[in-house]
């Protein structure tokens, strides 16, 4: 029986794309960089994804990717921004200004609290994620939150999950379920940690990996059935 859910935040509970678009456009305005079109947002999003994948593989430290992603983006767009670090700091603040839940996630998590312990597990920066958890009200639902900046390790590393397990107490691995949208971060992390894995896949993407996936869902309302049948 599943007794613990480890929840990814961005792209699973919260609509990160909406937050990303708002934060980027607001920072363009604050730094007087002109218009930020949908096409530009899409190009930045791809650059950002590539840098986070490098973080997950342990190729670059987080402090480097946070600034370098914007330096790369500005260079490719021929945009003159003299302080990418300051831009990133403003961006972190703006990320929490738009809170959009996926699949009515807030009420789903409220309901699940009667059945399981729930914890946030996120690779986002402390500045952005702490503000999101507070602004969204999720901080009051989760039994605790684990942010990689505080832990000093990122998903999917076993170091990240070992820290989580030490904090939540002794549960058999089969009683712990991680739910996330990222194969490379959440599902790979769950595989590394030996816990049950649920891939949130609302876009019905193909799985081109050899990772173990115990459950695939397209809507977060499906989670309750998994818990009740476990």
Classification by helices and strands: alpha/beta
User: Mean of residue pLDDT?
Assistant: 96
Classify the fold: give the CATH topology of the largest domain: Rossmann fold
Helix content: 40-55%
Radius of gyration: 18 Å
Low-confidence stretches: none
By CATH, the superfamily of the largest domain comes out as: HAD superfamily/HAD-like
Query: Can you tell me the number of structural domains?
Result: 2
The CATH architecture name of the largest domain reads 3-Layer(aba) Sandwich
Specify the CATH class of the largest domain.
Alpha Beta
By DSSP, the count of extended strands is: 6
- Amino-to-carboxy terminus distance: 5 Å
Description:
The protein has helices spanning 16-30, 38-56, 62-77, 84-94, 105-112, 126-136, 148-151, 158-168, 183-193, 223-229, and strands at 4-7, 117-122, 144-147, 176-180, 196-200, 215-217. It is α/β, with parallel strands linked by helices and 230 residues long. It folds into 2 domains: 4-15 and 99-229, 3-Layer(aba) Sandwich (Rossmann fold), CATH 3.40.50.1000; 16-97, DNA polymerase, domain 1, CATH 1.10.150. The protein has a 6-stranded parallel beta sheet with strand order 3-2-1-4-5-6, with helices on both faces.
What is this entry, summarized?
With 230 residues, the chain is an alpha/beta fold. The chain contains ten helices and six strands; from the N terminus they run E-H-H-H-H-H-E-H-E-H-H-E-H-E-E-H.
Annotation keywords:
globular, 49% helix, alpha/beta, 2 domains, 6 strands, single chain, Rossmann fold, 230 residues
């Amino acid at each position: 029986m599943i007794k613990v859910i480890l929840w990814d935040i961005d792209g699973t509970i919260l609509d990160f794309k909406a937050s990303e678009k708002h934060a980027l456009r607001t920072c363009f305005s604050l730094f007087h960089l002109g218009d930020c079109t949908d096409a530009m947002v899409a190009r930045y999003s791809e650059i950002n994804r590539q840098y986070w994948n490098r973080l997950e593989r342990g190729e670059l430290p987080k402090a480097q990717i946070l600034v370098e992603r914007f330096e790369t983006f500005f260079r490719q767009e021929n945009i003159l921004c003299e302080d990418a670090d300051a831009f990133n700091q403003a961006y972190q603040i703006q990320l929490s200004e738009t809170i959009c839940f996926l699949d009515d996630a807030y009420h789903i998590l409220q309901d699940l609290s009667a059945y399981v312990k729930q914890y946030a597990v996120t690779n986002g920066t402390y500045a952005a994620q702490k503000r999101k958890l507070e602004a969204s009200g999720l901080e009051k639902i989760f039994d605790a939150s684990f942010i990689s900046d505080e832990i000093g390790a990122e998903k999917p590393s076993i170091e990240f999950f070992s820290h989580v397990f030490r904090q939540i107490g002794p549960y058999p691995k089969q009683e712990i379920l991680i739910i996330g949208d990222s194969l490379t971060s959440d599902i790979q992390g769950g595989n590394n940690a030996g816990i049950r894995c649920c891939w949130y896949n609302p876009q019905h993407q193909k799985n081109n990996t050899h990772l173990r996936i115990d459950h695939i869902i397209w809507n977060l309302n499906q989670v309750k059935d998994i818990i009740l049948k476990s």
